Every structure is written in C-alpha cells, then in structure tokens.
Amino acid sequence: MMKGIATRALVILLGLVFLLTSIPAGSAGAPVTITVTNRKGWRSTEGIKANLPQFEKATGIKVNWIDIPPGELTAKTLAELEARTGAFDVIMASVEFDLAAYYRYLIPLDEFIAKKWGSVASFKRLISPEAARAIVWEGKVYYIPFHGNVQFLIYRKKLFEDPAERSAFKQRFGYDLPTPPKTIKELVDVAVFFTRPEKNLWGLGIPLGGKYPQHFLEHVMLGAGIDVVDLKTRKPDFAEGAKRDRAVEIAQFLFDLLYKYKVIPPGAKTMGHVEMREIWKLGQLAMAFSWWGDHWDKLTSPEFVSAVGEVGSAPFPQWPGGPPGRSGGRMSIWTVGIVGTTKNKDAAWKFIEWLVSEENLQTEARTSGSASHWIAVDKVSAERGWLAKGLVEALPKSVPPRLGFLKEGPEIVTAFIEEAQALTVASVSPKAMVDRLAKRIAEILKK
Amino acid sequence: MRRLTLDQAVLIAPALAIMLVFFAYPIGLTVYFSLLDYSLMRRTKAFVGLANYLHVLQSDLFVRTATNTLVWVVISTVLPLLIALVAALLTYFRFRGYRAFTALFSLPIVFIPSSTAILWALMYSDPFGLVNHLCEAFGLGRRIWLADPATALPAVSIANAWYGTPFAYLMLLAGLESLPLEPIEASEVDGASSLQKVRYILLPMLWPIFTVVFLLRLIDTVRSFALIWIMTQGGPGTASLTLPVATFKASFLQYDYGLGSAWGIINVIVVMGISFAIVWRRREVE
C-alpha cells in the first residue's frame, strides 16, 4: 500500500518538474516586459511613474517597476548583478558608489547614444560637465543621468525682511543683515542672531542623524578644496599639512555650531531632512541646510507658506580659501543603465529614451523640485520657478562625492559616518576626529 | 535504530529537500563566504581561510560590539522577564480588573519591530517626544536620548524590553495556569501567605518554564536587528553597534560579503553557545 502511494507521489513530482521546466519563458507575440528598479517612495520619480501608462501604450512595452527601499537599493541591485540572475533590465544608479560598482555588469550605451544624439560628444554637451564625467567608465558611457541635486541653504524671508530684526542685527553686528549670508562668518552671525531658545527659534537647522553629519562635512570639505581621498595618490587628502589644518577647522566649525554658538536645535542630532522640514514648518528655524531640492514643492506649498511665510534659498557659503567658482560639494547624480544580462536591450533603451524625455524631466522638476543635469531642461525648469534658486546656483558649482569613484568608497564612508557622528555627540574632539578618520582611511586604502 | 524503508525515504524527501535548500545551503554558503575575501566593490573572491575571523576578533570594533551586545542582551532580557514575572503572578492571583490588565499589558505583542522602533524613536525625539516632556514635568531636563553615547544603547534596549515583555508575560502566565493545583491548595491548608506560596511553591514549579522563556528571549535578543537599526543604526559612532548590526554594515553597507559572513557566523556561534550552555545547565539541574 505504502509502496504504491510513494511510487505515485514520485511520478506526480517528476511530472510536475517536467511540466515546469518545459514551459517556454515567453511565447511569440507576447508583449516585451522589462524590469526597472526604482528608489521606493522617492519624490523625484513619483511623477515619472505616473506617466508610465503613456509609455506602455505608445510602445507596447510593459514595465515592471520595482520599488526598492533606499537603504537596500545598492545592496539588492549589486547582489542581483553579481549573481547574474537577470532579474533587472534597467537599473537606477547614483554617483555615490553605484556607478563604480555596477558598470562591469552593464552594457556600454555609446552606440545607442550615437544613434539618438548623433555622437557621444554631442550628447555630453547636453548634460552638465560633472555628470558627463561621472557616467564614463573605461572610456565608455554606461549611464544616462536623470536627476541632480545638492544640499543648499534655505531661509525664512519674512524673518529676514522684518525691519525690527534688520535694525537689531545692524546694531549688534555693525553691518546689514545679509539676505542670504554669503560667507561663513555672516552665516554664523546670522545664526547666532536668530537663535532664541526661549522662543523655540534656532538660527540654523542641519540634520545630523545617521549619515547626515558626514554629508555636511563632506559638502563643506569639498567646497574648501579638500577631497576625502586624493584619487591620484590614493591617500587621505587631509592627513597632513594645510589641508589637515583646514579639515580640523571645518570639524571645529560644526562642533562650534553645536556646542559653542548653540545655533542648531539639539534634537537635530537624531534628525534626517524630513524631520528638519517639519521643524521648519513649525517656525522653529531661521535657516536650514539640507537636500532641499527633494522638498522644494512642499516648502513652497500654501500649507508651508501660510505656516512660516515665503522661503528663500541660496548656496551654502563656501569655506574661505576654497577653489574659485566652487560653492560646495556632494553633488548628487542619479542615472539609469542597461544590465548586460537583459534579453530586451532595445526595449530597455526605448525606456531610457522615454525616461529622459523633456516631458518627464520637467515633470520631475515640477512635482519634486529636482534638477536633471540636462542643461536645457534645467534652464526651463529654473525659469518656470520649479527649482529653488539655491539649487540652480549651487549645482554647477558643486562636485560629486569623490568616494564614489573608489572601490573602497563604502568602507571609507562607513568610517566617515561613525567619526562624524562621534564628533556631533562630542565624544571626540574635532582635531582627534580628523586625525582618527585620516588614519582609518589610510588603513582601508592599504588593504 | 530502525532503517528507513524506500517509501518512508520518498515521503520524507520533499521536506528534507526544502530543509537542505532553505536552511543548510544558506548556512553552508555563509560559512564558505566567511572564508573568502569576497567584496562586491573590490571585486575579489579569493580564499583567505580564517583571515576574516581574525580581522574581526582582533579589531577594537569587536570588543566594542561584544560589550554593546552584552548590555543590549542583559537589559532586553532581564528587564522584560522580571516585569513579566511580576505581572503574571499578579494576574495569577486574579486581582480586580485583571482581564483588562491582561489585554492592555499584552498589546505590544501585536507590534512589529519596525513600528515599535518608530514609535519609540518618536517618544525619545526632541522636541516632540513624550519621554522628554515627562522628564521636564519631573524636573529632570531634556536629553537627546538616541544621540547621546551614554544613553543611546540603554534607550533602545528599553524599547526592546517593552516589545519583549508581553511575550514573556503570556508564556509565564500560561505556565502558571498549567501548574498542578494540589501543592497550592495544600499550602493554603497549611496557612501559607501569598508571598510564601510564590516563594516556595510557584517559583520552583515555574522554574523550567522560566528558563525556556529566558532562553527564547535571549536568542531573540542576540539576533535582533530591526529595532536597533531603525532607531540608531548602531550609532552615534559605534555606541549602540551590536553583532547583527555590525554584520549588516559589513555586508550591505560596505558590500564585503566575506567580512559580513564572518561577523554573522560569530553571531550564530554566540547564540548557539548561549543556547547549549543553558540547555546543558538545565539538564544538570534536572
């Protein structure tokens, strides 16, 4: 009896295995489906996502849009690419580490580009110079940019324009209230002036939770002409000499903002930019520095304006002595690329062409306030007021994080985040933080 | 020992195959990865023997992480068990309103770790959080609980204790309810007070269940990740970095599967070591 059941079970199992393995992956005439990765909940792609049905209707290509949480996007993409599962056809990649990590799994896009824009050179003229540099690996173009961002300063216009405030500022500091501050000294003076803890008003909001203190320090350091790692010598750029002293000054600056001038709300040490935006809405900040391009539509919405008035924006002042024409660093470049294992290269390229169409990039600017690195589109978006003035001015004066060009980048960033956090909670002095970080980076690069 | 017949082997095979694919294979692969210099960024995949383990064990970070894990485990395990024990004993004696108390006290069990983390992060936050409002009301002053190296780990551990207490409570209460009534009735005849009943009858009889609950809670805490990751990401600096968080950071932030796997295997060895020690101790007592 048992033997009979077992034999039948075995036959059924084998039959099922045969059936499943003999079904073809796709039958002739079926619509092409491509799988595209997306950073989940990202305001910059939400508007584009809403336009997807138009693309599907026009091309007959079905798009399987996979939302991956931001914290998992690189790890998940990289794991799939390394395992060559063929799970994705088009992947979304940022300049932070992805561009360096993914390109070996992707196909060069030079031929597609030449067909669409005449030549790679003419394509590169359409996008920002930094983006044009970042998308090329070993002489080939692997990525097409669609999103650009940089951290910048916002300020409450109403507060800055108040005659009583202006007169009180002049009386105290001997010069007109700068609107907005253009130097580090002015920034500190203004932040100190507006800091009134008894009224729950803070001069300068900087999100300092998680990775954000590192974002701030790297931004200011790049603005001062200090790369975290000198890509030519493969050594920490601030290990010794004048750059080390300047790095210590920058670390001291953040430390002083927190503990000497006390212009940053204490709770900022656990905040990201969303929480900082809510503090802004409560009217507790005179100025704030973060990735405000992602929130510009919110900051300028009637809901926010009625709560705290009009918002002004400007680049964060450059650190004295930095390279001329540079405002800060940490330019964000987000791109798309085609995975080498895809069976639908043409469909994937059609999708990319559609993604970076003028209509989509303008949708992105209009719905989220983000730039695209496409010069003509960004110009129109700026003219129409979809982009913050601060973003438009700061973006061309920025550079992408250099760590994105190093294979040791993620390890260095982890160390940088840990040291920057230690600095913000005062468990290490600015000098010790800089020296410790330089030592850790040197050890990582030695490996 | 009876030998398996062919029929039995065929019937067991699917379950065994599933176990091998979803349990043995990933563990085997992790052990294998831990012996490689396997970095997705550096694009290396060379055999390095125990180098990853030596790198982890010889690093300052390991000492810090091990100490943090110990603090995390002690607070997250001892605190909920003590509270749960007291609450279960009170409930056992059917105090007035015990049904409502049981329902309310068990409420956190319906939370998932991520929502618990968000809830507590909000409660600890400044200026919105309840904790600081309470501190201020009692004249203790405000603190940035999750950004202070001295308070970050205890604060997260307390959130974890809150999350773990209902499970321990329900298990201990079920254990108490299942105890034989005769010894308790006999003690009542002998005139034992409630405290004496607890001290000399209930607690000794409950001990085997208590150790099981303790063991389950301990293992759950040592390997728990979500709560601490969402609340502090192991920071500030490395102030709340525990073994699972270090494993995650090496594997998925640095994309170093070799090093991450070594951290992971060390974590598994710690959990297994604790489990074996407790089971062995329990057998010896029995």
Give your account of this protein's structure:
The complex is a heterodimer of chains A (447) and B (286). Chain A is of the alpha+beta class and 447 residues long. Chain A folds into 2 domains: 33-148 and 331-402, Periplasmic binding protein-like II (D-Maltodextrin-Binding Protein, domain 2); 152-329 and 407-446, Periplasmic binding protein-like II (D-Maltodextrin-Binding Protein, domain 2). Chain A has helices spanning 2-22, 43-59, 70-83, 98-102, 110-117, 120-126, 129-134, 157-161, 163-173, 184-194, 212-223, 241-259, 273-281, 296-299, 302-308, 345-355, 358-368, 375-383, 389-394, 409-424, 430-446; strands spanning 33-39, 62-68, 90-94, 136-137, 140-141, 144-149, 152-156, 202-205, 229-230, 235-236, 285-290, 311-314, 332-338. In chain A, the strands form 5 sheets. In chain A, strands 8-11-7-12 form a 4-stranded mixed beta sheet. Chain A has a 3-stranded antiparallel beta sheet with strand order 3-13-6. In chain A, strands 1-2 form a two-stranded parallel sheet. In chain A, a hairpin with a 2-residue loop joins β4 (136-137) and β5 (140-141). Chain B has a single domain, classed as MetI-like fold, CATH 1.10.3720. Chain B is built from 12 helices and 2 strands. In chain B, a hairpin with a 4-residue loop joins β1 and β2. In chain B, α2 (51-58) packs across α12 and α9 (194-223) packs antiparallel against α12. The longest helix of chain B is centred in the N-terminal third of the chain and has 33 residues, at 60-92. Classes of the chains: A alpha+beta (447), B mainly alpha (286). The interface between A and B is large, with 45 and 36 residues.
